[in-house]
Amino acid sequence: MGGITVSDRKQFRDLATPEAAREAIASLELTGEPESVPLTEARGRVLAERIDAGRDVPGFDRASMDGYAVRARDTFGADEAEPAVLARVGEVHAGEEPDVSVDPGTCVEISTGAVMPDGADAVVMVERTDPADAVGEGDGEGENDSDGDRIAIRTTVAPGDHVMLAGADIAAGARALGPGTRLTPREIGLLSALGVEEVPVRGRPTVGIVSTGDELVRPGEPLSDDRGEIYDVNSYTIASAVEEAGGSAELYPHVGDDYEEMERLLSRAADECDLVVSSGSTSASAVDVIYRVIERRGELLLHGVAVKPGKPMLVGRLDREDGGESAYVGLPGYPVSALTIFRTFLAPALREAAGLPEPETATVSGRLAVEQRHGEGRLRFLPVGLLEAGGDTETVVGDGYPLVYPVDKGSGATTSLVEADGVVAIDPDTDYLDAGERVEVELFSPDVRPPTLLGVGEDDPALNRLLDGLDRPRYLPVGTREGVRRLRDGLPDVAVTAGPVRRSVEAVDLGGWTREWGLVVPRNNPDDVQGLVDLIERELRFRNRTSDAGLRTALEAEIESLADERGIDREEAIDAIDGYGLESRAFESPARAVAGGDADVGLGLRATATELELGFVPIGIQEVRVRANPERTEKPSVARLESALAADDHLLGLDGFDSTGGS
Amino acid sequence: MGGITVSDRKQFRDLATPEAAREAIASLELTGEPESVPLTEARGRVLAERIDAGRDVPGFDRASMDGYAVRARDTFGADEAEPAVLARVGEVHAGEEPDVSVDPGTCVEISTGAVMPDGADAVVMVERTDPADAVGEGDGEGENDSDGDRIAIRTTVAPGDHVMLAGADIAAGARALGPGTRLTPREIGLLSALGVEEVPVRGRPTVGIVSTGDELVRPGEPLSDDRGEIYDVNSYTIASAVEEAGGSAELYPHVGDDYEEMERLLSRAADECDLVVSSGSTSASAVDVIYRVIERRGELLLHGVAVKPGKPMLVGRLDREDGGESAYVGLPGYPVSALTIFRTFLAPALREAAGLPEPETATVSGRLAVEQRHGEGRLRFLPVGLLEAGGDTETVVGDGYPLVYPVDKGSGATTSLVEADGVVAIDPDTDYLDAGERVEVELFSPDVRPPTLLGVGEDDPALNRLLDGLDRPRYLPVGTREGVRRLRDGLPDVAVTAGPVRRSVEAVDLGGWTREWGLVVPRNNPDDVQGLVDLIERELRFRNRTSDAGLRTALEAEIESLADERGIDREEAIDAIDGYGLESRAFESPARAVAGGDADVGLGLRATATELELGFVPIGIQEVRVRANPERTEKPSVARLESALAADDHLLGLDGFDSTGGS
């Protein structure tokens, strides 16, 4: 493929409506072939046909109590005071064929579950009987009297008492379970009672996943940053979403934008699957190639839908070698967009084909935390995060609905997948949603649960340990300044700050610690770095933190006072540091660059240097504080964070970390 | 083992409270060893440890648009009217290493996802560019000017525009996912972005299931009714409930009440599993044996709990060969009781050990359909059925809560497993619950959904087909008379009657059909049966239906008129029929007895005879009617049933069936 020009690109000018997209997908045949699975693997599957009882359950008249099998008429009139005394002529246990019958005046000892002996029509519970010796001479008159004990029956029973007749539970030929029944443990129980070993179930729709993009590499394989390779995200995300929706996913090898190769791969996937889904590439050329393959080797039903994100969606059919057809859907390339479109349009169709109901936990009601303006004239799926209001009614935030807030990272970010919990569908006619408005969030998965705690601010190893001890926290490492700003805006439960906070914020201090920071250097400090001066005066490759990091602020303050001290210009000092502009977003990254030989000096913590077995040149001590939204201090997750802070376990073994207690 | 006497039996006099049972179970160690699973199998599992990013994502500065990589300062001042013209010196696609750098005055064509070439710090979207020829002479001044095209840049970009910097998505060393995170498709996506191929997850607790009872046979194996064998229900029910709760189930061979064998099996299961569950036998002797094994080979923490059902529950520990311990729980023998106790006490403990949250769909609120009296002084789990109120708000029954009604079959019936949907816990202090009261139903499984339709009455092959076409119907084949009684009491949506209805009921007739009934005989009628007279006058083995069946009522009426005709006594005629008292509960059962050689003549339908390729001697035509609860005719499921009745598809190919239309 040559250069990309505007005229080469598919313009999707005639966008289909979302309803048309749903209809196009509904027109596809996704249902798999019915199959037979062993009973032990049938849970969660859906019956393909009605199951009638193949036999009576129980298959015989069955004692339902431990006691004595009798002829009911032999007990007529018996009671506590005047028992009937019967001759015990034998016994029968569960799993045994009776070797004796019950004649008038006799009884047979019987266990729960045992076959009723011939002649008997009722069971007397053992609790209503006694050995006859205990009551003196009885009036038993059975002919086998001499063979066994004599039993006093202290109650009158009617025919059928404590007996389950053959077929009383379910009779041969009766309808047991209908087609479409989802098999949960209880249905498995009924099927086992019927002796069903192989269960006819609906086939799972098979979904072939074709990823486009020369830059994609499977997890586990080596990656070249120089060639701009990245790990394949969509294939795995969509494959597990397919399985979650009741389908069976098959991953196909990656393919670039070569027409022949794409055609071969799509044809093979079509031959082998009920549905072929392509995703991965965000490049227009690959989409163009797919488009051409579908048009030539099948039928394109729809290209482009008036939704955001998801505009480049394709729906069509692919011919199979056997003369049949496979369904085809092309998803957008960005992970959040791909999952949104899958969840909205494809998952319901797959569940329908698999015979599974829409999960009740697929959506959650919440209240919008901030107003939302919209004016795009097309359906918008706004990625949003959720925040649990709090478990306890007394400490609940607002009216108990979770808070819903937009997640505004670019949809190309894979972290959006976990920072957003789902999407809010905003219809083309809505141009304003007020803060506090009730909205329905379509969760990315029915198993997604709102986080219990939302924290923002600095990143720090002790903080990571604190978070590990909480249940479903969400933490956005946006740095101190941005963290304080967001806390002031009222959304997060807590903000974590490092170093001095310039703008004041109304907050409740939950506790904190100090951390020693400085320059991370290779083991044994081979360049003999003594301090910041060496960075300025010598040729050392430095690795910095981003300007939102508390360590960066501390570094800048040190450089400023160093410049003052030496009477040089601050900017000049900074320009003299090679790599000052090479910024890392995580506290460990500069040290990793040092460990990997990509830098001589990195901005970082003593604890990191110790952990990575690197050298360390101390510069200062910085205070880290956890500050709570004043309205959320009673929220259970915030209270748990406060106790964890007080316990100080998160500081154990972290070199250069120290407790400061509450402020 | 010898005879059972009262003194031999464990009496469970000191019953533990349900809270003590919960505590005893909470004291057991159920957690499995952490393990590592491939990413493709990680969905639904729970992270055993925190995952930090092992690398920057992306690993390089990445173009996030198709367009031209530029030095931002070369575009300063450019706009639609006065474009900057740059020399295009090369191109770079996703997955390629750039072979060119961007010097002042030049640009490189770039695809989304490609590596930014050296020198470039921003991308201009292709939409904001044109080939420079189209604008006449530009002012490009790059030294490679002569090598390529000239591109007009019609906008000003800032450094970083449309570029995702290395590590901007997630930086090496940053906290990606916390321990305890449940892996849904989105987390799978993030893990794949990080290149994580093997995921450290919490181990599933392994649960060994030991079934006690000599009478138990595995589904798929032959069953002897003579020996009183039945298929094992509890093992399969509990095994799938274990899997549903996040555990891994292992079935052990059945064991009788032999001490040595039981000890060997329980010890083996303890060595191999985190938890051993026994269930199956309802016989006191087997429970006694288990009790003795646990006391000798471990520790019994609790025997007997003050709940109904579930009194005989055992909780303890079993020693392992390696010096460790395995947890032990003994469940009651009846399937519904076993599942109730599992669901209430064990499933939450297993989920906790597996790190899974309590499912939100584990309980459902409903309104009690009938009053409930209770006075047992202990916690009662009442098995109940649910009935969906109706999907549409306009046609909803009551206030939209499903109806809850007790299922009063003995808990020994396996059909209770599917006729009840869960249990209502009634506290020892509650002795009365009014009809209409709000109750919480603890569902047998989070996947259980209330039926959309509750039907009662006659059983019939055409009806079975109608039911097959509905979504989640529940039908109780209680016969015509009982069906009418229940419809009058107001619970069911519809009752199906066969033959004349003696007691009037206010109902809306939805439609019906007629069916031909008579005597089913072997193929070609070898005994030359001509009619009922042969049953009375000859030695033929007959198989009847139960007295609740419409066919039985019709048969009785025929016998009565035959007796009148011939001037004989009705009772005498009945006594003369060999097997008149052998009653089957399903319409097909007598015919199956004929097919199996167990009877010479069976009461049944022409359609059944035709289907089983048997002979048939007609006696009469019987009308079957479907009658709706007058308050439910607008309910969507009832309306669907009515349309299905009108369509008559359910009668196709059923020999002797005829349409009658509405009444």
Automatic annotation (TrEMBL), chains A, B:
<keyword id="KW-0501">Molybdenum cofactor biosynthesis</keyword>
<feature type="domain" description="MoaB/Mog">
    <location>
        <begin position="208"/>
        <end position="352"/>
    </location>
</feature>
<dbReference type="GO" id="GO:0061599">
    <property type="term" value="F:molybdopterin molybdotransferase activity"/>
</dbReference>
<dbReference type="InterPro" id="IPR036688">
    <property type="entry name" value="MoeA_C_domain_IV_sf"/>
</dbReference>
<dbReference type="InterPro" id="IPR036135">
    <property type="entry name" value="MoeA_linker/N_sf"/>
</dbReference>
<dbReference type="InterPro" id="IPR036425">
    <property type="entry name" value="MoaB/Mog-like_dom_sf"/>
</dbReference>
<comment type="pathway">
    <text>Cofactor biosynthesis; molybdopterin biosynthesis.</text>
</comment>
<dbReference type="InterPro" id="IPR024370">
    <property type="entry name" value="PBP_domain"/>
</dbReference>
<dbReference type="Pfam" id="PF03454">
    <property type="entry name" value="MoeA_C"/>
</dbReference>
<dbReference type="GO" id="GO:0005737">
    <property type="term" value="C:cytoplasm"/>
</dbReference>
<dbReference type="InterPro" id="IPR005111">
    <property type="entry name" value="MoeA_C_domain_IV"/>
</dbReference>
<dbReference type="Pfam" id="PF03453">
    <property type="entry name" value="MoeA_N"/>
</dbReference>
<dbReference type="Pfam" id="PF12727">
    <property type="entry name" value="PBP_like"/>
</dbReference>
<dbReference type="InterPro" id="IPR038987">
    <property type="entry name" value="MoeA-like"/>
</dbReference>
<keyword id="KW-0808">Transferase</keyword>
<dbReference type="Pfam" id="PF00994">
    <property type="entry name" value="MoCF_biosynth"/>
</dbReference>
<dbReference type="InterPro" id="IPR005110">
    <property type="entry name" value="MoeA_linker/N"/>
</dbReference>
<protein>
    <submittedName>
        <fullName>Molybdopterin molybdotransferase</fullName>
        <ecNumber>2.10.1.1</ecNumber>
    </submittedName>
</protein>
<dbReference type="InterPro" id="IPR001453">
    <property type="entry name" value="MoaB/Mog_dom"/>
</dbReference>
<dbReference type="GO" id="GO:0006777">
    <property type="term" value="P:Mo-molybdopterin cofactor biosynthetic process"/>
</dbReference>
<dbReference type="InterPro" id="IPR008284">
    <property type="entry name" value="MoCF_biosynth_CS"/>
</dbReference>
